[in-house]
Design brief:
The complex is a heterodimer of chains A (about 160) and B (about 775).
Chain A: E1 2-8, E2 11-17, H1 23-30, E3 49-52, E4 55-58, E5 71-73, H2 86-93, H3 103-116, H4 122-128, H5 140-149
Parallel strand pairs in A: 1-5
Antiparallel strand pairs in A: 1-2, 3-4, 3-5
Chain B: E1 2-4, H1 28-32, E2 48-54, E3 60-66, H2 68-71, E4 76-80, E5 105-106, E6 112-118, H3 121-130, E7 132-137, H4 144-148, E8 164-172, H5 175-180, E9 184-192, E10 195-196, E11 204-209, E12 215-219, H6 224-235, E13 242-245, H7 262-270, E14 277-280, H8 283-289, E15 292-293, E16 296-304, E17 310-322, H9 328-337, E18 347-356, H10 370-388, H11 392-399, H12 419-428, H13 430-433, H14 435-440, E19 446-458, E20 468-475, E21 481-484, H15 494-506, E22 514-516, H16 534-565, E23 574-577, E24 580-583, E25 588-591, H17 592-597, H18 601-604, E26 605-611, E27 635-647, E28 653-663, H19 670-690, E29 695-696, E30 699-700, E31 718-724, H20 746-758, H21 769-778
Parallel strand pairs in B: 1-31, 2-14, 12-13, 17-18, 21-22, 28-31
Antiparallel strand pairs in B: 2-6, 3-5, 3-7, 4-6, 8-18, 9-16, 10-15, 11-12, 11-14, 16-17, 19-27, 20-21, 20-26, 23-24, 24-25, 27-28, 29-30
Helix pairs in contact in B: 6-7, 9-10, 10-20, 11-12, 15-16, 19-20
Bound molecules: FE2/S2 (inorganic) cluster (2 copies).
């Protein structure tokens, strides 16, 4: 067992954990943050995507004990129903979800992309989210939703 | 999405017009914030984990299961075998052949042999590893021909009929003779592999015993009510002792049509010392144990006269259901009914078999047998067009069925049918019209082709099984409307459509209504979320319930008004407006909250039972398919077009553009409808090009998402959609089911495009680069510019 402190969605958390537990499990089982989903536990689907120290990661591949001092953002930290983040709102407006199980991961990927590249081309969006699987939408509206929020909103590529 | 032939709906006077509008999804806000609780997101207080010991061998006799050492491990709550099951230990819909826990025989690698319950996931893993299964291997069968050979090992010993689950034939005219007399004829065999549903939320749920000992199960399921029936029988419980609720699913596509984890959950909850249990398959277990699309071999002979009019069809379809029937006979029946495609053909012989093997279990998957049938007939049509020198789209138009025509399998189309218009739309579409220029624009070492396919899809359960729904609406004490959804929403958005329908029918704002998701304790039995029937059937029931509630509200409101006005008020003079009723002659309104206070709970609840009309046509052939759904009454129609570029150096086929033109009645919500077209196309493209499910000796070689390749955002082309909206007046507001016709025919459209581009046809399974390259090589076209 090891005790770590980290920040999750802006809140400090102190956790005592056994060394093999993943960030995904800790978020879901210990912190009640079930927005990060499990689709494979092997880094293949991206449903578990969170932003760790500013970068998107598959939380199923991150050991939680290594996160002392880290900063984690999950979909719950983006905005609530009263005040959706613009990208969340864009997913709603563009019908970018069906079952919605991939959605938190997709939204966080979109956030991460737009943070480093505010004007991505459509191809750059596709490339960036290509590690995140969606079985329902065929991606079309997801790409549209991210493009709609991109600065200026124009579509290139 | 472009709309043609859009005939507007007429909302009830004074109402809120929701139908035909782009209404936001009711589930969107909770899903984008991570607040939505899927079955996977339930972690009840003090819960324990349940997990399954899988057989790992395809066919064996179980000599013994030693659970003692597992039981002795720390943190292990229970280790259970079939001996702990009180009921029949058999699951299944028609053919009840699948044990919850194996009792004597293992029939495929994913069979469940024992169930462990433990404090932690680690303790669970240790317990499962410590269970010893003593097995005596049995000879196994892995292909239908093997399984049907004399002396073959029998998958279900003692079953009359051996490994043949069902055989059937639909015949009209003289197919063989007519074929011999055809001016042009082709023969083609297509092999189709398994397809994995690969919903992102794997099979999961939680369960617990209530204070009175009854069970509550929260599961990712398309069929809460049927699950309850199946579980009661298999476990020896009465229906009132089981409650099943179905939160929004993280995808289903047919793979959660029936019991997956629910039997394990119920059994574990009965032996967990009163603690809630949670089960959640890993991706590997999901692939190992879950059902898949049936692999099939389809052989087609199709002939036409000198004018390109189809004269004769002779086809054979052989399906592998794997170790259990699941919904195999129903899938098979639908495949046979659709075997000849949406055409007029007078001389037809359709013959089919569905066979048990020791392979993974196949079952319901969006499309339900039609994708396999379409893969055969639509490639045969293209081949015939090629040898006879006809344009493939024109040939389809020439032979397409319309209202009043008879399908190749003898079904008289008695309802509006928009196939001809779909074909005309595609013919006019730039993706088709400009195909020649596009083809000629291929860069060096690439060859381009454009392929089409036409399909139809029967909606609902057919003539034998009642396709019913029981809708329930409540006017709450606060004067709001609660819509109880009796059918699960696996992502397709039918919960939203339910709200839209009620909103439209009662004139109440969509955003003001509350929704109750399927729950055997709060909603009423309304059958499965499947068969393209969900919104059609439940929507009709909801319209009925809304009518009942409207009448009650108006009657009670009129009574209240008469007290106020000291004069009799006729309910016909009262309008239902958002949040109130309005009496025009007096100019008075009464808020719904006040009316609700004037009604008791029973009056505030309206229910309505609706059963779909069926096709009562007496068809002299294919009689044993009737019980399994043949024939259908209402069909949706579609034409798919794929533009494909083949790399002659690598064999890789890239779909550059994809067009879905669909006629599924009127469109209730254009965006939700378009979502179905996108999703179905993407899943169909996966089936055509990427998802090469590999099984050898009953063992799955593509057991995870690293080896089973799903299309990513980079693999799916721009998807264009065209809606042909022809009203089906039996449907709610003129709609028909759209969820499946969207995947039918994607594979042959792509295969036809590849065949045109490569000059050779790949007919074995997924169109991978290796296979296309081999075909190019064989045709002397490898590395051609
Ligand atoms: S669950 Fe982490 S990548 Fe799939
Ligand atoms: S919306 Fe279902 S997986 Fe993406």
């Amino acid at each position: 067992m090891k005790t770590i402190t980290l920040t999750v969605n802006g809140r400090p958390e102190k956790l005592t954990l056994s060394p093999h537990r993943t960030l995904l499990d800790v978020l879901r089982e210990d912190l009640g943050l079930t927005g990060a989903k499990r689709g494979c536990e092997a880094g293949e689907c991206g449903a578990c995507t969170v932003i760790l120290n500013g970068r998107p990661v598959n939380s199923c591949l991150v050991l939680a004990v290594e996160l002392d001092g880290a900063d984690v953002l999950t979909v719950e930290g983006l905005g609530g129903p009263e005040g959706l983040d613009p990208l969340q709102q864009s997913f709603v407006d563009n019908f970018a979800l069906q079952c919605g199980y991939c959605t938190p991961g997709m939204i966080l990927m979109g956030k991460a992309l737009l943070a480093k590249n505010p004007r991505p081309s459509e191809d750059e969006v596709k490339e960036f989210i290509s590690g995140n699987l969606c079985r329902c939408t065929g991606y079309e509206n997801i790409v549209k939703a991210i493009m709609a929020v991109a600065a200026g909103g124009e579509r290139h590529g | 999405m472009s709309q043609s032939d859009w005939r507007s709906n007429r909302p009830p006077a004074g109402g809120v017009q929701e139908i035909g509008r782009v209404a936001p999804r009711a589930d969107a806000a909770a899903k984008v914030t991570g607040a939505e609780r899927y079955a996977a997101d339930y972690y009840p207080e003090n819960y324990v984990w349940a997990g399954v010991k899988r057989a790992g061998v395809p066919h064996a006799r179980i000599m013994g299961v030693d659970t003692a050492s597992a039981r002795a491990l720390p943190g292990v709550v229970a280790v259970l075998t079939h001996k702990d099951i009180g009921g029949k230990n058999r699951l299944g819909i028609f053919e009840k052949d699948q044990p919850i826990l194996a009792d004597g025989v293992v029939r495929h690698c994913g069979d469940a042999v024992a169930l462990a319950v433990a404090e932690t996931k680690e303790a669970l893993t240790a317990a499962l590893a410590a269970i010893r299964v003593d097995c005596e291997p049995l000879a196994a069968v892995f292909a239908p021909e093997e399984a049907l050979a004399a002396g073959a090992p029998i998958v279900h010993e003692g079953r009359g009929g051996g490994n043949l689950l069902l055989e059937s034939e639909i015949c009209f005219g003289k197919a063989r003779e007519a074929l011999a007399g055809c001016r042009h004829a082709v023969e083609l065999t297509v092999e189709l592999g398994w397809q994995e549903h690969a919903f992102l939320e794997t099979q999961t749920g939680v369960a617990w015993q209530e204070a009175d000992g009854s069970l509550t199960i929260v599961a990712s399921t398309q069929t809460p009510f049927r699950d309850r029936l199946e579980l009661a029988e298999a476990l020896g419980l009465t229906l009132d002792r089981i409650r099943v609720t179905a939160p929004y699913l993280g995808g289903g596509f047919g793979g959660k049509d029936g019991v997956t984890v629910q039997g394990f959950l119920a059994l574990a909850a009965l032996h967990s010392g009163g603690r809630p249990v949670k089960i959640w398959y890993s991706r590997e277990e999901s692939i190992l144990a879950g059902t898949k699309r049936h692999p099939a071999t389809v052989t087609y002979r199709l002939g036409c006269d000198a004018d390109g009019v189809f004269q004769a069809l002779d086809c054979r379809l052989v399906f592998d259901t794997g170790a259990y029937a699941s919904l195999g006979t129903e899938v098979f029946a639908l495949a046979l009914e659709h075997a000849g495609g949406p055409y007029r053909i007078a001389n037809v012989a359709v013959h089919g078999k569905i066979v048990y093997t020791n392979n993974p279990v196949a079952g319901a998957f969006r499309g339900f047998g039609v994708p396999q049938a379409a893969a055969g007939i639509e490639q045969a049509v293209d081949e015939l067009a090629r040898v006879a020198g006809f344009d493939p789209l024109a040939m389809r138009r020439k032979n397409a069925v319309g209202c009043g025509d008879t399908t190749p399998t003898g079904v008289v189309i008695g309802r509006p049918a928009g196939l001809a218009e779909c074909l005309a739309q595609v013919e006019r579409h730039p993706l088709w019209r400009e195909r020649q220029t596009w083809r000629e624009g291929a860069p060096p070492f690439k060859r381009r082709g454009v392929g089409v396919a036409a399909v139809y899809h029967g909606m609902g359960f057919g003539p034998a099984v009642a396709d019913y729904a029981n809708a329930k609406l409540e006017l709450t004490a606060e004067g709001r409307i609660t819509v109880c959804a009796g059918v699960a929403d696996m992502g397709q958005g039918n919960a939203t459509t339910c709200l839209q329908i009620v909103s439209h029918a009662l004139g109440q704002p969509y955003g003001d209504m509350e929704l109750v998701l399927p729950d055997t304790a709060r909603t009423l039995p309304s059958a499965s979320s499947s068969a393209s029937r969900t919104t059609f059937t439940y929507g009709n029931a909801l319209i009925g319930a809304a009518g009942v509630l409207r009448e009650r509200i108006l009657a009670r409101g009129a009574l209240l008004l008469s007290f106020q006005l000291l004069a009799p008020v006729n309910a016909a003079e009262v309008d239902l407006l958002p949040g109130r009723i309005y009496h025009a002659p007096s100019g008075r309104s009464v808020p719904l909250k006040v009316i609700a206070g004037f009604m008791d709970a029973a009056e505030r609840t309206a229910t309505y039972s609706y059963t779909c009309p069926v096709n009562r046509q007496a068809i002299p052939t294919g009689g044993n398919l009737r019980l399994h759904g043949y024939p259908h009454r209402i069909f949706s129609y579609a034409v798919k077009l794929a533009r494909v570029e083949v790399d002659t150096l690598t064999g890789e086929a890239r779909v550059c553009d994809f067009l879905s033109c669909v006629e599924a009645g009127r469109v209730l919500n254009p965006q939700l409808y378009e979502q179905q077209l996108h999703g179905g196309a993407a899943q169909g493209l996966g089936y055509a090009l990427f998802e090469d499910f590999a099984v050898s000796g009953g063992e799955i070689a593509t057991g995870d998402l690293a080896t089973y390749i799903l299309p990513t955002a980079l693999d799916v082309p721009d998807m264009e959609t065209v809606s042909v909206a022809v009203s089906e007046d039996e449907g709610p507001f003129g709609m028909k089911g759209v969820g499946e016709v969207v995947i039918d025919g994607v594979l042959p459209a792509v295969a036809n495009a590849v065949a045109e581009a490569a000059g050779v046809r790949v007919t074995k399974g997924t169109l991978t680069a290796e296979k296309i390259l081999a075909a190019l090589r064989a045709g002397g076209r490898e590395a051609t510019r």
